[in-house]
Design goal:
With 266 residues, the chain is of the alpha/beta class. The protein has a domain of 174 residues: Rossmann fold (3-Layer(aba) Sandwich), CATH 3.40.50. Helices cover 50% and strands 11% of the residues. A four-stranded parallel beta sheet has the order 3-4-5-6, with helices on one face. Helix 5 links the parallel strand 4 and strand 5. The radius of gyration is 18 Å and the shape is globular. It binds NADP nicotinamide-adenine-dinucleotide phosphate (NAP). NADP nicotinamide-adenine-dinucleotide phosphate binds next to helix 1, strand 1, helix 4 and helix 6. The site of NADP nicotinamide-adenine-dinucleotide phosphate (NAP) has 31 residues, from helix 1, strand 1, helix 4 and helix 6.
Length: 266
């Protein structure tokens, strides 16, 4: 798992640890990693915690090599690490921060997936879950770097799924819904001058709904990991719709729910 020292990543790590998964986590903060590692191991599983920056390919390489050395195989890859990036009008954004957002959110996921996939293909099984985010399925003003990085991730998931057909490796994008974490706190703090009152109220409300949000996330993750629904591979799945999706799973057309053009019939 990438970026599981806190927030959604740590919660997913706890869910998986409770089910008996040994887990490898990373982030850029050693102290937070240590605390996260101890909390994961308290479920009675093994946890390897490594400090690294996923925007650095060589560090990603060493991460995957150490994971394989320790646990021999990788059943599941959760590409969770991400940053919010610059908030505000695009033309006023710091371009270095804009690029950093793409380097972490998109390239970090690309690096790790590129390094992990050969192992999954060799073992003829595996699941990859990419955390999407606000702006991947609609435009999101004031978060252009974040939304572009997440939209690209969704297309990456769609494309990879096509290439993985018949190989027993599934890849999903998950939209976890807004959850009260360090990321949303930062959005509230630095976006207060830019965001309208409604957006601010919505962010404030998250604080009270954390348990429900994590409950929904657990249901979706365990469904994807345990049931491995092939019809959903390649798709962006929203956490709220899981019950509906389960019911209509066999009716989902191969090309539905993908990024599309207006006015083009294929
Ligand atoms: N919270 C939401 O409402 C929400 C909604 C939709 C999607 N998401 C997505 O869910 C994922 C997790 O978000 P969150 O809310 O849990 O954020 P968070 O609380 O800020 O946690 C992000 C995690 O990623 C790590 N990380 C960031 N940059 C990294 C890097 N370059 N290398 C290694 N690790 C890195 C962070 O650790 P360090 O910073 O210490 O490295 C931290 O462990 C993100 O992909 C986010 O876009 C969140």
């Amino acid at each position: 798992m990438t970026g599981a020292s806190k927030g959604i990543g740590l919660k997913i790590a706890h869910i998986l640890a409770e089910k008996g998964y040994n887990i490898v986590i990373c982030s850029r903060n050693s102290a937070e990693l240590k605390v996260a590692q101890t909390s994961i191991e308290s479920f009675g599983v093994k946890c390897l915690a490594l400090r690294l920056d996923i925007s650095n390919y060589l560090q990603c390489k060493s991460f995957v090599e150490k994971a394989i050395k320790r646990f021999r195989k990788i059943d599941l890859l959760v590409n969770n690490a991400g940053i919010q990036g610059p908030i505000g009008n695009f033309w006023q954004n710091d371009l270095k921060k804009w690029k950093e957002t793409i380097d972490i959110n998109l390239m970090g996921t690309i690096y790790i997936s590129h390094l992990v996939l050969p192992y999954m293909l060799k073992q003829k099984s595996g699941t990859i879950i990419n955390l999407a985010g606000g702006g991947a399925a609609y435009s999101r003003p004031f978060y252009s770097a974040y939304s572009c990085s997440k939209t690209a991730l969704v297309r990456f998931t769609e494309t990879l799924n096509q290439e993985l057909k018949g190989k027993n490796v599934l890849v999903f994008s998950v939209a976890p819904g807004a959850i009260w974490t360090n990321m949303t706190k930062t959005a509230l703090k630095s976006g207060a001058k830019i965001l309208d009152k409604r957006s601010i109220n919505e962010l404030e409300l998250l604080r009270k709904a954390t348990d429900l949000a994590f409950y929904k996330l657990e249901k979706l993750f365990m469904y994807l990991i345990d049931k491995k629904p092939k019809a959903l591979s390649g798709k962006l799945i929203h956490v709220n719709e899981i019950e509906d999706i389960k019911k209509m799973k066999n009716k989902i057309k191969e090309d539905s729910g993908l990024l599309r053009r207006v006015g083009y019939k294929s």
